[in-house]
Amino acid sequence: MKIQLLLMISLLSLSVFSKSPSPAEKDFLKTLNEVRSSYSTKDMSFQIAKLEKSSEEGQIDIAEFGLGRGIFKYWLEVTTKVSKKLRSQKCKNLKASFSHKTVSSTHLNSDQYLKYSSKLNDKLSVLTEKDAQEVFNILRGYDNDLVYSEYGMGCESRAYAMNLIMDEMCINSAKVFIESEKIQLKDHNWSWIYHVAPIVLVKKGNDEIPYIMDPSLFKTAVPLKTWIEKLREQHYYNEYKLTFTDKYILLPMDKDLKLTSYRESDKEEADDRLFIRSLLRIVRPFKRPLKNE
Predict the structure, then answer these.
(1) Is residue 91 within 8 Å of 167, Cβ to Cβ?
(2) What is the pLDDT along the chain (293 residues), one digit of tens a residue?
(3) Angle at which helices 129-140 and 71-92 cross, to 10°
């Protein structure tokens, strides 16, 4: 009798205190099942980004779904390499095709503090918005190699490596260097004197908009204007110099070189710099957060 009574109380408690899943939880679970079943066989990067966003915005407690810290990063790394392999194969089979154009001056809105110059000789691939974001997700999936989390240094090496990765997918990219006496992100103690990231063009109606691939600062590919605004937000009235260069340039001091291929010495230097960043990531838990350095 006592056991039956306890069982009835237990069932009553479950009926009173249990709640049905919210619409956000149902949607999360549906997407989660898609990712779990397919991330290793096809590109699930957009779905993974959706799960990650729900978690970061506090809509979902991933522990309630049996997920641990770092799972999104792992899934993204696996699924983007699947996507890259497919794109690279199309490139090798000559089935990947993009139109190519130069950066239009109509998108370069100078002001008294911001000046543009171009050292570009090559035309850039024109991607759809969907292609651009998928390619960005592929690049973001290389965090283990390119150490985006150590964004305070090494931008030139990351950009160099991203250009090479895009080459394998038949995407011709370039670089944008921004230079100033002080480039500083909001709420950060440290600053740069230059920053650099790859650039492509994205088709928007009858226009081709310059887009930046910079996973160290953003979670999507963004228009050039958005990238510049973020880098100017702390010191808007400093003087900024923006320079477009071909993808073969590693450092801002080399902007005037007319290179037509990658130099082996630059590849080695980029690899060495990335290795140092990877070591910093290992000791980061024992140091101050990067933004406070």
Answers:
(1) no
(2) 444 444 344 443 433 344 677 888 888 989 999 999 999 888 888 899 889 888 888 788 888 888 887 898 889 889 988 999 999 999 989 888 899 999 888 788 778 899 999 999 999 999 999 999 999 999 999 998 999 988 888 999 999 999 999 999 999 999 999 999 999 998 888 899 999 999 999 999 989 999 999 999 999 999 999 999 999 999 999 999 999 999 999 999 999 999 999 999 999 999 999 999 999 888 888 888 887 77
(3) 120
Query: Are residue 168 and residue 75 in the same domain, yes or no?
Result: no
- C-alpha distances in angstroms, 237 versus 111, 231, 233? 10, 12, 9
Residue 266 and residue 133 share a domain: yes
Task: Spell out the residues 6+ positions from residue 99 whose beta carbon is closer than 8 angstroms to its own.
Answer: 125, 126
Q: CB–CB of 203/126 below 8 Å?
A: yes
| Cα separation, 260 vs 122, whole angstroms | 9
Region for 118 from its dihedrals, namely left if φ exceeds 0, alpha if ψ lies in -120 to 50, beta otherwise = beta
Is the domain of 187 the same as that of 261? yes
At 242, list the tokens: 């923006």
Range of the domain at 91: 20-96
By the 8 A CB rule, do 79 and 39 touch?
yes
Q: How many beta carbons lie within 10 A of that of residue 163, not counting itself?
A: 24
**How many domains does the chain divide into?**
2
In a domain, residue 56? The reply is yes
Would you mind telling me the total number of residues written for the chain in this entry? 293
| The model's pTM | 0.85
On whether residue 181 sits in a domain, the answer given is yes
Under 8 Å CB-to-CB from 29, ≥6 apart: which residues?
Answer: 21, 65
